[in-house]
């Protein structure tokens, strides 16, 4: 007998048992949350960024709380792809959920090498191509702010790997749909949006910035209306499935993104407040469908009444 309500959704070739993912950088490589969340109950896990070489990240302090938000300047701290393959991927592969690996680089060649290498190991369902980190100096963000560079990067990645490519967009642009369209034309399977919004906070007593890196990325409920607006605009311009994120704390928040046009959502900063929140959101979506007498979750996607 069919199990209703049916929460399954597809991001192109990636099939999820439900639309709730955990966002990159807020769930480690899966192991960190094993006492709180059964990954088999999630749509999937998006890992913390993996880069070619190990990165130490930015100088401390790297986190500052703001009203309704969190400023971070982690700077893509990670052990590098070799250690990821040897020490992190074997554990991830055993989890009964979709594994999406977030990759970042400063040069196109770094991204291509990473994609080739990760594509060979097996056990990875998709790559999330982070062209949007505000916390790396120089080149990291440039792919996300220029349509021509985003196009050329995604095109190159398509040749380097058969893995589905999810391109993660930055909100730190005038028109996010231009970059979205470039990624679509180049062959992206899906888009993730949004990454953090560039921000800054100052301690007036010391007159110093609250972050060692001076600026950082703002996440949490404060950015949700911006994220929902960008999902809506992108939904109206491209035909790709979208993963919506930015300040999702509850099932109701997640539903805003779905009605705006997202096929799935990712929960980020909320994991720091309640490590089991992602599972509560899955349950909340199920209850909403029952209350509304909707059998298939995917009927809600983009179903905004205007
Ligand atoms: C501490 C922290 C680390 C993050 N690290 C990454 C990362 O490694 N790669 C990435 O693409 N996004 C990273 N992000 C961005 C999140 O994945 C997400 O796009 C953003 O925080 C908005 O969602 P939220 O408001 O639910 O946190 C990070 C966010 C936070 C708060």
TrEMBL record:
SUPFAM superfamilies: FMN-linked oxidoreductases. GO terms for biological process: 'de novo' pyrimidine nucleobase biosynthetic process; 'de novo' UMP biosynthetic process. It comes from the Bacteria. Residues 7-289 form the Dihydroorotate dehydrogenase catalytic domain. Its EC number is 1.3.-.-. CDD domains: DHOD_1B_like. Keywords: Cytoplasm, Flavoprotein, FMN, Oxidoreductase, Pyrimidine biosynthesis. Binds 1 FMN per subunit. The active site is at residue 133. Substrate binds at residues 48, 72-76, 130, 195-196. Its cofactor is FMN. It is found in: Cytoplasm. GO terms for molecular function: dihydroorotate dehydrogenase activity. FMN binds at residues 24, 48-49, 102, 130, 168, 194, 220, 246-247, 268-269. Pathway: Pyrimidine metabolism; UMP biosynthesis via de novo pathway. One of its GO terms (cellular component) is cytoplasm. It catalyses: (S)-dihydroorotate + A = orotate + AH2. InterPro entries: Aldolase_TIM (IPR013785), DHO_dehydrogenase (IPR050074), DHOD_1B (IPR033888), Dihydroorotate_DH_1 (IPR024920), Dihydroorotate_DH_1_2 (IPR012135), Dihydroorotate_DH_cat (IPR005720), Dihydroorotate_DH_CS (IPR001295), Dihydroorotate_DH_I (IPR049622). Belongs to the dihydroorotate dehydrogenase family. Type 1 subfamily. Catalyzes the conversion of dihydroorotate to orotate. PANTHER family: DIHYDROOROTATE DEHYDROGENASE (FUMARATE), DIHYDROOROTATE DEHYDROGENASE (QUINONE), MITOCHONDRIAL-RELATED. This is Dihydroorotate dehydrogenase. It comes from Aerophobetes bacterium. The gene is pyrD.
């Amino acid at each position: 007998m069919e199990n209703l309500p049916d929460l399954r959704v597809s991001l192109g070739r990636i099939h999820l048992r439900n639309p709730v993912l955990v966002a990159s950088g807020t769930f480690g490589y899966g192991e960190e949350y094993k006492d709180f969340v059964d990954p088999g109950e999630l749509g999937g896990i998006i890992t913390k960024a993996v880069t070619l070489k190990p990165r130490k990240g930015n100088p401390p302090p790297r986190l500052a709380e703001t009203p309704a938000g969190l400023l971070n300047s982690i700077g893509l701290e990670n052990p590098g792809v070799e250690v990821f393959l040897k020490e992190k991927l074997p554990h991830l592969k055993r989890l009964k959920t979709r594994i999406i690996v977030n990759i970042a680089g400063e040069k196109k060649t770094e991204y291509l090498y990473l994609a080739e290498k990760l594509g060979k190991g097996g056990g990875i369902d998709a790559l999330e191509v982070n062209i949007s980190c505000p916390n790396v100096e120089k080149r990291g963000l440039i792919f996300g702010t220029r349509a021509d560079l985003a196009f050329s990067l995604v095109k190159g990645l398509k040749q380097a790997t058969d893995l589905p490519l999810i391109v993660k967009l930055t909100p730190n642009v005038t028109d996010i749909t231009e970059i979205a369209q470039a990624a679509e034309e180049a062959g992206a399977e899906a888009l993730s949006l949004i990454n953090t919004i560039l921000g800054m906070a100052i301690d007036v007593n010391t007159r110093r910035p609250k972050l060692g890196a001076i600026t950082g990325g703002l996440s949490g409920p404060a950015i949700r209306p911006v994220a929902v607006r960008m999902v809506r605009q992108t939904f109206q311009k491209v035909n790709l499935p979208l993963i919506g994120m930015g300040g999702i704390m509850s099932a109701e928040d997640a539903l805003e993104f779905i009605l705006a046009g997202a096929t799935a959502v990712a929960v980020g900063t909320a994991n720091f407040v309640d490590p089991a929140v992602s599972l509560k959101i899955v349950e909340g979506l199920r209850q909403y469908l029952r209350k509304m007498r909707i059998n298939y979750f995917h009927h809600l996607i983009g179903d905004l009444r205007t």
